[in-house]
Structure formats: C-alpha cells, structure tokens
Design a protein that fits this description.
The protein is an all-alpha fold. Helices cover about 65% and strands about 0% of the residues. A two-stranded antiparallel ribbon has the order 1-2. The chain is elongated.
Length: about 210
C-alpha cells in the first residue's frame, strides 16, 4: 500500500509540478501538496530572510527537490538555500562545510545574497575563520550588484579600517544612491556616509554623489 501511495504521489508531482512526500502515518487526505518555489519567489524569500522558515513551514516536504535543483540543475538560489539548510541543519543533518561550499557555488554564479552572506560570515567569523580581507571581497561584489545589506556592511568595514581607500568612492556612490523606507536604516546610512566622507578627498565625494549608471 505504501509503495502504491508513493508511486501515485511521484506521478502527481511529475505531472503537476507539485511535491507531496508522504510522512510516516499520513494518508492522502492528510497530505498537503506543496508547490516548488519559483526562482524569483525564492530570491524574494532569501532577501527577506524567510527562506528557511518557509522550508520548515512546508514540513520539509521539498528537501529532495531542493537538493536536485542545487546539485543537478545548479540553480543559484537553490544552491544558496540548500547550502543554508546544510549549514544550520534545517530539515537535514547539519554539515556546515558542505553548506558553505554550496553558498560559494551560488556566489560564484553572482547571487548577491550568497555574496553578502559569505562576506558577513567572514567578517564576523560565523562558521568560518574570521577574515576581514576576504569579507571585503565578497561584500564589494554584492554591493556592486545593489545589495543594500552588503553596501552597509562594506562601509562598516571601511570605517573600521579594513579594505582599500581606493574603494571608498564606489562604496559611497552605491550607498548614497540606495533607497530604503526604513527610517532607522536611513539614519544609519546618513551617519555612515558622513563618516566616510571625512576619509575622502572632496573631489572624490563630488564624484561619488553622481546618479547611478551615469
């Protein structure tokens, strides 16, 4: 009976694009089919930091699908999600080293969230050995791709004396042109810009205040 149930579920998932993995003791009536996340929807969840919560809320039914899209299709957002799940043991056994590896794969494909998270991890020494110089490299790449969190973290490192002064103008330029409706974040950005400005030549500041893509 179990084999028939799993076969029926597999065929349903293949035809409809839904995933419905039976948990022990569940009947068909008790199962809730879960649709696999689109790339755009997953990126939105990652940017809002709700991606792991979503996997848990879906009762870990998509683990095999997520792994397949990370391993076989090598979709950057799924590589990042699978890496995060492995790093922190969400719905799978924790394997931090493998998790970081998948995050690096996503970062190498240019996923801003992966670049930002790796930069933050190296800056703080989370899971990896603290390496501020490596953090700057990751955060600079993410900042150039308009990741606001990375732009803020990058300037924080510059203000703490890390990184190269040659990069100050770009960092100021990106953060100066950032947009946020968070009042506290807006105040933080203004404060960081004022502090960074003191470390820059007036001409560099003027150049940095140009509009984006100009």
């Amino acid at each position: 009976m179990k084999r028939i149930l799993h076969t029926a579920l597999f065929i349903c998932a293949t035809v409809t694009g839904f995933s419905a993995h039976a948990l022990e003791g569940e009947t068909i009536e008790e199962l809730r089919a879960v649709q696999l996340y689109s790339q755009d929807a997953l990126i939105d969840m990652i940017n809002a930091n709700t991606h792991l919560d979503k996997v848990v809320a879906d009762r870990c039914q998509l683990v095999q699908d997520i792994e397949a899209r990370a391993n076989v299709l090598k979709v950057p957002a799924y590589q990042f999600l699978w890496g995060d799940m492995l790093a922190w043991g969400v719905c799978v056994d924790a394997e931090p080293a493998r998790g970081i590896g998948y995050m690096e794969d996503a970062a190498n494909q240019g996923l801003p969230a992966a670049l930002e998270q790796l930069g933050r991890y190296y800056a703080k020494g989370t899971l990896v050995q603290q390496d501020k110089s490596r953090a700057v490299v990751y955060l600079r790449e993410a900042a150039a791709l308009k990741n606001l969190k990375a732009q803020i973290h990058l300037v924080e490192l510059f203000l703490d004396g890390y990184g190269s002064p040659y990069d100050y103008e770009d960092a100021y330029h990106w953060l100066y042109n950032s947009v946020t409706n968070d009042k506290k974040q807006h105040q933080k950005i203004a404060s960081y810009l004022a502090r960074l400005e003191k470390l820059m030549h007036p001409k560099a500041v003027r150049e940095a205040k140009r509009p984006l893509d100009s």
